[in-house]
């Protein structure tokens, strides 16, 4: 028996929208006013969505339960699988003590607070967002800056603002993976579209950060370093997102901009070393010397991670892994059991690609890294158990949010909301980023915001004749500038910057910057939708019999290998010069 989706169950679109919005409005109320925990709000919202889907939209209870189960299972694999592995690798580095070497190395490059902010808050924070994500980048970089002597409010605030550039590609690209799954648009076109929006922001962000810290005049004093930092980051972000997919832009752009700025600082120094007036004494000793071997060993888990993820992304390797270890099946009782608004049965497939999944690539990297960083596999197993315990509530939240999103999409609730948004007509692309911004403000996660609104963005864009990849990408890009004011992010930054109890000050510090950047992203999206359509990638929807029309990704790997060699040569020269300086000092 096939059930057909209903868009206007009350035959009054105004009333239908009011009821359809109840689960989403509940999340606003639960997180902002009630200050409920994320997993609790998600579970209750899922229950509300189920009640409305069955009683109002007439969705059979069995289909509603299966839809929630389908979303929850997808949340567990591949999303939670990837998140667990990424945090596991990061925790291995911390447990072994190697992360302390990375921190000291980052802090010892320069004593100028403006340049330290670029290296740590902007570039290193991006790298951490790409590998760990979920609050770790802001927590770590804010603590580092405070330890170096930064004013705590500025340390926490600029780390929140700097975290906007990498959020879209965080945790090995999970936000885009979720947006792809929910919207039905392949990952690479979404990655390409986001990668043609955010680099514009990335170029300007370093100068913006330094201006916040030291003022416009002091920012101009180091404009060459700001330019190197922003342009190198933006170029690598654009390149990797367009040719390699969503997994590595943060890792590559973060590391690449660090190397480029380090190399540049070997030949250029600011005329004066700028520090805060009456800044607190540093608690972080940046004068410890480490050998090249110690530094490379400390970075080895992340070097291996990059190699593994790139290798897993090469199509011939992916094909071999899928031929050995992949199970794909029609989701029982749900596949083709729901008829969309256009009369087409909705395919509900589940692909358990346990070997080719990005999370498996990270697991292999972690297993290789464990002995390299000086740990035993017994200790590694203990770290893995601690990681699972650390992530138990995020795992539950992700599963609940995905279940919630799938019910909204399968029942037609999302289509009801889209019908109203479509009434904004020509201007909808301008408002599309606002949905992502609100979603991240509510949930604290670009991943969750994409699970909630990607299908709505897709449906609305289709109804007004705009390419859906523009608005789905706008949901992601708009979401990144909501991260700096989400209650969860504010709490993490306040804890790391010793500002517990002063969260309202931190919120006031970041909120205006969030609005400025949101309006900027809205303007870019409107321009992309109508004025510069040539920037939109050509693609086919998932499940289409036609091949996806995208650039030859294999060329990207060739370019990346050449680029990696050049960066390695630069890094080697920089490390050699650093070591010579250390020996001279000794």
Give the topology, please.
Layout: E1 3-4, H1 13-20, H2 22-33, H3 38-55, H4 61-95, H5 98-107, H6 113-131, H7 136-148, H8 152-162, H9 170-183, H10 187-194, H11 198-214, H12 216-221, H13 223-243, H14 249-265, H15 292-313, H16 315-324, E2 327-330, E3 338-339, E4 349-352, H17 358-372, H18 377-390, H19 392-411, H20 413-421, H21 428-443, H22 446-464, H23 468-480, H24 487-496, H25 503-530, H26 553-585
Parallel strand pairs: 1-3
Antiparallel strand pairs: 2-4
Q: Count of DSSP E strands? A: 4
> Helix-strand pattern, N to C?
EHHHHHHHHHHHHHHHHEEEHHHHHHHHHH
Strand content: under 5%
Name the strands of the widest sheet in spatial order.
1-3
User: Which ranges are low-confidence, i.e. pLDDT below 50, for 5 or more consecutive residues?
Assistant: 544-560, 578-586
User: Could you describe the largest sheet, including whether it forms a barrel?
Assistant: 2 strands, parallel
How helix-rich are the residues, as a percent range?
over 70%
What's the shape?
Answer: globular
């Amino acid at each position: 028996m096939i059930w057909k989706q209903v868009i206007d169950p009350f035959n009054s679109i105004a009333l239908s929208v009011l009821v359809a919005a109840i689960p989403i409005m509940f999340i606003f109320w639960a997180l902002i006013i009630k200050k409920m925990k994320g997993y609790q709000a998600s579970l209750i919202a899922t229950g509300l969505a189920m009640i409305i889907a069955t009683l109002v939209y007439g969705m059979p209870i069995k289909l509603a339960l299966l839809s929630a189960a389908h979303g929850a299972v997808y949340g567990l694999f591949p999303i939670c699988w990837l998140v667990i592995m990424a945090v596991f690798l990061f925790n291995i580095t911390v447990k072994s003590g190697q992360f302390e070497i990375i921190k000291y190395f980052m802090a010892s490059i320069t004593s100028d607070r403006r340049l330290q902010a670029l290296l740590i808050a902007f570039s290193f924070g991006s790298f951490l967002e790409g590998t760990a994500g979920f609050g770790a980048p802001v927590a770590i970089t804010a603590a580092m800056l405070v330890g170096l002597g930064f004013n705590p409010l500025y340390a926490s605030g600029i780390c929140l603002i700097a975290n906007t550039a990498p959020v879209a590609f965080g945790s090995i690209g999970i936000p885009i993976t979720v947006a792809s799954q929910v919207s039905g648009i392949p990952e690479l076109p979404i990655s390409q579209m986001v990668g043609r929006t955010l680099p514009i922001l990335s170029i300007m962000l370093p100068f913006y950060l330094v201006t916040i810290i030291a003022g416009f005049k002091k920012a101009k004093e180091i404009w060459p370093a700001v330019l190197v930092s922003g342009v190198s980051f933006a170029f690598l972000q654009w390149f990797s997102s367009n040719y390699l997919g969503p997994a590595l832009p943060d890792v590559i752009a973060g590391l690449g901009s660090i190397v480029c700025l380090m190399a540049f600082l070997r030949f250029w120094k600011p005329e004066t070393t700028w520090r805060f007036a009456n800044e607190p004494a540093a608690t972080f000793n940046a004068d410890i010397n480490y050998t090249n071997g110690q530094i490379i060993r400390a970075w080895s888990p992340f070097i291996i991670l990059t190699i593994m993820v790139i290798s897993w992304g090469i199509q011939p390797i992916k094909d071999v892994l899928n031929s050995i270890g992949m199970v794909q099946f029609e989701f029982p009782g749900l596949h083709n059991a729901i008829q969309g608004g256009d009369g087409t049965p909705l395919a509900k497939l589940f692909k358990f690609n346990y070997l080719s999944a990005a999370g498996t690539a990270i697991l292999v990297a972690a297993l290789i890294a464990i002995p390299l960083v000086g740990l035993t596999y017994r200790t590694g197993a203990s770290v893995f158990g601690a990681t699972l315990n650390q992530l138990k509530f995020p795992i539950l939240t992700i599963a609940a949010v995905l279940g919630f999103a799938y019910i909204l999409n399968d029942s037609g609730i999302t289509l009801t909301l889209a019908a109203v948004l479509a009434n904004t007509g020509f201007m909808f692309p301008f408002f599309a980023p606002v949905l992502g911004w609100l979603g991240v403000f509510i949930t604290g996660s670009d991943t969750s915001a994409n699970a909630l609104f990607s299908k709505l963005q897709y449906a609305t864009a289709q109804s007004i004749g705009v390419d859906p990849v523009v608005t789905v990408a706008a949901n992601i890009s708009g979401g990144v500038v909501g991260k700096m004011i989400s209650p969860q992010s504010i709490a993490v930054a306040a804890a790391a910057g010793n500002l517990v109890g002063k969260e309202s000050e931190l919120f006031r510090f970041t909120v205006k910057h969030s609005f400025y950047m949101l309006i900027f992203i809205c303007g870019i999206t409107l321009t992309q939708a109508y004025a510069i359509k040539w920037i939109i990638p050509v693609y086919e929807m998932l499940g289409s019999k036609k091949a996806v029309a995208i650039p030859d990704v294999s060329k990207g790997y060739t370019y990346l290998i050449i680029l990696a060699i050049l960066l390695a040569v630069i890094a080697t020269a920089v490390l050699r010069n650093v070591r010579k300086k250390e020996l001279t000092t000794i």
